[in-house]
């Protein structure tokens, strides 16, 4: 059956990867609703067939616009957010507007139109783990967010849960670990270091570089979301992860090696305030209940392909690079 999907934030990193995945693997039609903030880029949706994908430029907090779009679709996948921790430390306000009020606006429309709603969230809502802790996050780990960004994502998750229980909205939630792959903004860790090397600048590692992130390819995130949208139980939360824990130092050294540089050719810079130490996802529920499996099981190969993508797509990332580095320079990063 051909569905009509509304994908919020579909011009951002993970949202655009999802739109590409849907076009490749289903017959669905996708309407993207995106405000095209600094993080949104129309070019990430270029070359997709115009009879399968259309872009509406607008704000998820615009209730009239959202209401009209919900009336036209069968289901909604909600990626739109302010997504960068460093920005949230600098200016939290847009995070409240989009992540909290924007999600509230969408939930009210889902309620009015009785539409299937999938909310994209993050493992950061659970706070962090010690480096030597054998535990990983599960669906029952208590919420304990650290940053303005993660606290607004936690707030949005709680709104979704309340709208399911109080108003019967047909929603599911997924909390995913760190994504890598094509179309990621150069403000984020992996693209920043790849594009630094491409520009002849040394990569920048916050603090000691011992912080651990649990990496998953964005295409695996997309297949998991599609699985939950189609088979997930209403009201449930599913954690998405691909057993990809690595320290930041290890990732920087790998990028440098894959790009033909000395593995130690990076700089340590001022640490991020409140920097979460380690994230780790136990995705047993998603795998055992819904049969999902990641396809990208070789991080080095996925990273090498991502490096190639940035090498070949300077037109896509070049215009953002100067502004991003100017922002980081004000913080000595
Ligand atoms: P991104 O910053 O690359 O993209 C966000 C998109 O949302 C952009 O296209 C932007 O223009 C759009 N947007 C922002 N505010 C909007 C508004 N008010 N109305 C409409 N559109 C708006 O972010 P991303 O990394 O692709 O993350 C997407 C989602 O996935 C977020 O909800 C994030 O919390 C979640 N997530 C991200 C990761 C990760 O590793 N990047 C991991 C887990 C979960
Ligand atoms: O865990 C999921 C989250 O992953 C998502 O919810 C967020 O939207 C996404 O941005 C990401 O958050 P992080 O803060 O983990 O990602 P970031 O790319 O900003 O940083 C990854 C790690 O690398 C983190 O420990 C900080 C560090 N870092 C980052 C930058 C930009 C550096 O050491 N140097 C850098 O230049």
Mean pLDDT: 97
Alpha-beta content class: alpha/beta
Number of domains: 1
Q: Give the termini separation.
A: 49 Å
Q: Which descriptor suits the 3D outline?
A: globular
What is the share of helical residues?
Answer: 40-55%
Low-pLDDT runs: none
At CATH level 2, the architecture is: 3-Layer(aba) Sandwich
Radius of gyration: 19 Å
Give a short account of the largest sheet: 7 strands, parallel
- As laid out across the biggest beta sheet, the strand order is 3-2-1-4-5-6-11
Number of H- or I-type helical stretches: 11
Description:
With 333 residues, this protein is an alpha/beta fold. It has a 7-stranded parallel sheet, sandwiched between helices. Strands 7-10 form a two-stranded parallel ribbon. The chain has one domain: 3-Layer(aba) Sandwich (Rossmann fold). The longest helix is centred in the N-terminal third of the chain and has 21 residues, at 93-113. The model has no long low-confidence stretch (mean pLDDT 97). It contains 11 helices and 13 strands. Bound molecules: nicotinamide-adenine-dinucleotide and 2'deoxy-thymidine-5'-diphospho-alpha-D-glucose. 2'deoxy-thymidine-5'-diphospho-alpha-D-glucose (DAU) binds at residues 83-85, 122-124, 177-178, 188-189, 192, 204-206, 211, 213, 248, 272, 279.
């Amino acid at each position: 059956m051909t569905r009509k999907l509304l994908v919020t934030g579909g011009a951002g990193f993970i949202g655009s990867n999802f739109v590409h995945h849907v076009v490749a693997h289903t017959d669905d039609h996708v309407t993207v609703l995106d405000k095209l903030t600094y993080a949104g880029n129309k070019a990430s949706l270029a070359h997709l067939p115009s009879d399968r994908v259309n872009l509406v430029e607008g704000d998820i907090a615009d209730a009239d616009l959202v209401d009209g779009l919900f009336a036209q679709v069968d289901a909604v996948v909600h990626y739109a957010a302010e997504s960068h921790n460093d920005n949230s430390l600098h200016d939290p306000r847009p995070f409240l507007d989009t992540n909290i009020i924007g999600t509230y606006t969408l939930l009210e429309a889902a309620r009015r139109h009785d539409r299937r709603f999938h909310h994209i969230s993050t493992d950061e809502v659970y706070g962090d783990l010690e480096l030597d802790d054998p535990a990983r996050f599960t669906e029952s780990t208590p919420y304990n967010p650290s940053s303005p960004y993660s606290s607004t994502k936690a707030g949005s998750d709680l709104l979704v849960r309340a709208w399911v229980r109080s108003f019967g909205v047909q929603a599911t939630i997924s909390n995913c670990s760190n994504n890598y792959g094509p179309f990621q903004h150069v403000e984020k860790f992996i693209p920043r270091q790849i594009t630094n090397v491409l520009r002849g600048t040394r990569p920048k590692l916050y603090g000691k570089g011992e912080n651990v992130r649990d990496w998953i390819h964005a295409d695996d995130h997309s297949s998991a979301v599609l699985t939950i949208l189609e088979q997930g139980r209403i009201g449930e939360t599913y954690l998405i992860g691909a057993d990809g824990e690595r320290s930041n130092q290890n990732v920087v050294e790998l990028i440098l090696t894959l790009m033909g540089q000395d593995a130690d050719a990076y700089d340590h810079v001022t640490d991020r305030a409140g920097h979460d130490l380690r994230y780790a996802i136990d995705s047993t529920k998603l795998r055992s209940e819904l049969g999902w499996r990641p396809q990208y099981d070789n991080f080095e190969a996925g990273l090498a392909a991502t490096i190639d993508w940035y090498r070949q797509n300077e037109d896509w990332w070049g215009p953002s690079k100067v502004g991003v580095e100017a922002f980081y320079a004000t913080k000595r990063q």
